[in-house]
Amino acid sequence: MIARRFSRCATEVKITLFKAFCTSFYTSSLWVSYTRGQYNALRVQYNNAFRVLVGLPRFCSASGMFAESQVDCFYSTVRKRCTSLVRRVRASANSILRVFAHRFDCQYLNHCCII
Length: 115
Description:
- The protein is mostly helical.
- It is built from 7 helices and no strands.
- The protein folds into 2 domains: about 1-20 and about 30-70, no CATH class; about 75-115.
- About 65% of the residues lie in helices and about 0% in strands.
- The longest helix has 19 residues, at about 35-55.
- The chain is elongated.
- The chain starts with a helix and ends with a helix.
């Protein structure tokens, strides 16, 4: 819908729309139980949405298109969300949260390192 409605806009506008609508990944920092295959399916949809919106060919390089447009790829976006959550928990005034955030055997921290 966004690609059709804004098809005549400049590429910069389309990139701004993509960042606003497709990179929010609300609660993505809590997707601990997702499998590698589920992440892969989301990544493919993320890449395809960007290609359609900007009007790039279907089989163009994902890393090249994101680098050229200065947009974070799927994994960078998820890593930034995870890092942000860990940073906020570690800086929290709640001592219980800080204890869990500083444990190296924490399942969530291991998850963030794998992505």
